[in-house]
Design goal:
Shape of chain B: globular
Strand order of the largest sheet of chain A: 1-4
Strand content of chain A: under 5%
InterPro entries (chain B): ABC_transp_permease, BCAA_transport_permease
Strand order of the largest sheet of chain B: 1-2
Number of helices of chain A: 16
Structural class of chain B: mainly alpha
Strand content of chain B: under 5%
Radius of gyration of chain B: 19 Å
Helix content of chain B: over 70%
Distance between the termini of chain A: 27 Å
Transmembrane segments (chain B): 7-28, 61-83, 95-118, 139-159, 190-213, 225-249, 269-287
Order of helices and strands of chain A: HHHHHHHEEEHHHHEHHHHH
Shape of chain A: globular
GO molecular function (chain B): transmembrane transporter activity
Largest sheet of chain A: 2 strands, antiparallel
Number of strands of chain A: 4
Radius of gyration of chain A: 21 Å
Number of domains of chain A: 2
Pfam family, one (chain B): BPD_transp_2
Largest interface: A-B, 44 and 41 residues
Number of helices of chain B: 11
Helix content of chain A: over 70%
Oligomer: heterodimer
Structural class of chain A: mainly alpha
Order of helices and strands of chain B: HHHHEEHHHHHHH
Organism (chain B): Azospirillum doebereinerae
Chain lengths: 357, 295
């Protein structure tokens, strides 16, 4: 039953292969391919502003997937993801500026360096769980942030650092239209890697650690190894995402990688759905469009009594900040499984359409 | 050397405040097993409320302060009932994220309502500084030390002798047993949030009087983590000891830094290095109960 176009009713899976397949039907695979092709055509008809939003979704989505592997699949908590994201950004720029490593190579190398840092902070993480880990990563966030401000040789200190645009064989990816393809390719590759990771023995071990770590340990899963590994993988994704961010903006500033940014990453995966790969992307898109939505809402009520009473125009920054917190709380209270769950329900509804019960 | 002693005294005073905030943090954790990342925002809200009452309404301090406390009491109960009660039984990440979300919302709301710049309290004491054993110490600090000790003693009495305190301890020990003895666990949860918010507000007002009120106050809520981890997450005494140690430690680190090292920013960051070190060596802190797990 390898090439069916619709799912038969009932569960007829007879092998692990069919159970863990990425696309259960040819239709779903074709739709995924169609989606990527549509995205490939985006620069042709989209204006620069929308394109820049899509690029943001791309590199943030990569980093958020790393966090989802750590939080959603392994059940560890990290409140320091933006610090790793920032480390990747600085590392890539530093490798390129200081050592002359070509950018195309500096981006994956930055991922590897960030993995190293992630593993350093993963050592206490391997012994800790739950809220202790949350607090440890909180400390990591502040320590790394302090390091960014301190290490002039690495980050350029308070002045920030310049990152050269990505150049391959003399072709510079320095405009939004061109860079879009870089991010798209990176994102597709990283998401396929992530999806496949979860289908392997190691991926299943991570899920086992999340579901019941005592049982997992009794079954012979090395907890320390997998917790540390998960931290490393998450840092790798964050590093890649950060490096892509650096070469997109071509300037990295120390102040960007605050705890609020880390919380936004957590917000993305909670909104998207913990332990869901497609959900990560949905959550990232939601988080990127949220400020735009706030802007639009503000524009809609501008001039009315609400606008003058709250002085919205000057306080739009606070409104955006608040909306992040409010959205996280609302999702946790009303839809703890995130957008991925909602999407599944919508699909199920249409599948059985007139007779949904 | 005078500088060193000055910093030591400052450290003890600030540490006592950390201890108070850490205590109110531990109170929530003990009662309802919720790690409150919005503890710093309680300080912020309390301080702004008091500031607003004192400046906009021109209330005298002896009237404005109790009103602030009553407001925080109600605020704590409402917060628990509306936001935290639906989270009972949810996984730990959800609960942590809800409190983090709350902290973002409150911080942004406070900035929105009162602006981003620090605003000074109207003067409360006739003499801004006073002489303690030859050291110049701000009067507010001395008073705050007194208040801190008073609160700590109050907590000690409350949990040892008062009916409500005993009920809260019983709830923390075992919710089912407490319930079967006729204690309303719901009320205890709400009470723990209310008391915690109130006590934090006292600390918030104290710090606000010294440094002016600004969103920097909420950083106290972050500094609390090294203190509670050092003392043990579920130990009230540990919170006090941890707070004092962290307060002294950051001032000593600042002293070492300014005298010899010149690394800068050690005051802010030293507690976090200590935090990581403690988590590596003794994750349950000095006084915390060890988690022993059985299959």
């Amino acid at each position: 039953m390898a090439n069916v176009s619709i799912i038969p009713s009932g569960d007829f899976k007879t092998s692990y292969g069919t159970d863990t397949t990425i696309f259960p039907t040819t239709t779903s695979r074709n739709f995924a391919i169609l989606g990527v092709v549509l995205l490939l055509a985006c620069p042709a008809f989209m204006d620069r502003y929308w394109l820049s939003l899509l690029i943001q979704i791309g590199y943030l989505g990569i980093a958020a997937l790393g966090l989802n592997i750590l939080v959603g699949f392994t059940g560890q908590i990290s409140i320091g993801h933006s610090a790793f994201f920032g480390f990747g950004a600085f590392a890539s720029a530093w490798l390129n500026n200081r050592w002359g490593v070509p950018v195309a190579l500096a981006i994956p190398l930055a991922g590897v360096l960030t993995t190293g840092v992630g593993l350093i902070f993963g050592v206490p993480a391997a012994r800790l769980k739950g809220l202790y880990l949350a607090i440890a990563t909180l400390a990591a966030q502040y320590i790394l942030q302090d390091f960014f401000g301190r290490a002039d040789w690495f980050t350029g200190g308070s002045a920030g650092t310049i990152a050269e645009p990505l150049t391959v064989f003399g072709f510079a990816f320095d405009t939004d239209e061109r860079y879009f393809y870089v991010v798209l390719v990176a994102m597709v590759v990283m998401y396929i890697l992530g999806t496949n990771l979860m289908r392997t023995r190691d991926g299943r071990a991570l899920v086992a650690v999340r579901d019941h770590y005592l049982s997992a340990e009794i079954m012979g899963i090395n907890l320390t190894k997998y917790r540390t590994m998960s931290f490393g993988i998450s840092a790798f994704y964050a590093g890649i995402g950060g490096a892509l961010y650096a070469h997109y903006l071509q300037f990295v500033s120390v102040e960007n990688f605050t705890i609020l940014f880390s919380i936004q990453f957590l917000g993305m995966i909670i909104i998207g759905g913990l332990g869901s790969i497609m959900g990560t992307l949905m959550g990232t898109a939601f988080m990127v469009f949220l400020p735009e939505l706030m802007q639009a809402l503000t524009k809609m009520v501008s001039g009315t009594a609400i606008d003058t009473a709250l002085n919205l125009r000057e306080n739009i920054a606070f409104l955006r900040e608040m909306s992040v917190g409010i959205v996280i709380i609302l999702f946790l209270v009303f839809e703890p499984d995130g957008l991925a769950h909602r999407w599944k329900q919508i699909k199920a509804y249409w599948k059985l359409y007139p007779f949904s019960h | 050397m005078t500088l060193f002693f000055q910093l030591l005294v400052n450290g003890l005073i600030v540490g006592a405040l950390y201890g108070v905030v850490a205590m109110s943090f531990v109170l929530i954790y003990k009662a309802s097993r919720i790690v409150n990342f919005a503890q710093g925002e309680f300080l912020l809200i309390g301080a702004w409320t008091c500031w607003w009452l004192l400046t906009s309404w021109q209330l005298p301090f002896w009237l404005g302060f109790p009103i602030t406390l009553v407001f925080m009491l109600i605020f704590g109960v409402v917060l628990q009932v509306v936001v935290l009660r639906p989270m009972i039984g949810e996984p730990i990440i959800s609960v942590i994220m809800v409190t983090i979300g709350l902290s973002i919302v409150f911080q942004a709301a406070m900035k929105w309502m009162f602006g981003v710049f620090a605003k000074p309290f109207p003067p409360i004491f006739a003499h801004a500084t006073m002489d303690v054993f030859g050291l110049q110490v701000q009067t507010v600090y001395v008073v705050s030390l007194g208040i801190s000790i008073l609160i700590m003693a109050g907590f000690g009495w409350f949990f040892k002798y008062s009916r409500l305190g005993l009920a809260m301890r019983a709830t923390a020990f075992d919710q089912q047993v407490a319930q079967s003895l006729g204690i309303s666990v719901r009320q205890m949860f709400a009470m723990s949030w209310a008391i915690s918010a109130m006590v934090s507000a006292v600390a918030g007002v104290t710090v606000g009087v010294v440094n002016g009120v600004s969103s920097a106050l909420s950083f106290f809520g972050i500094k609390v983590f090294p203190a509670v981890i050092l003392g043990g997450l579920d130990s009230v005494i540990g919170a006090v000891v941890g707070g004092l140690i962290v307060g002294v430690l950051e001032n000593v680190a600042h002293y070492l830094d300014s005298q010899w090292l010149n690394w800068g920013n050690m005051y802010e960051i030293a507690p976090f290095y200590v935090l990581i070190a403690i988590l590596m060596v003794k994750p349950y802190g000095l006084f915390g109960t060890k988690d022993i797990e059985r299959v």
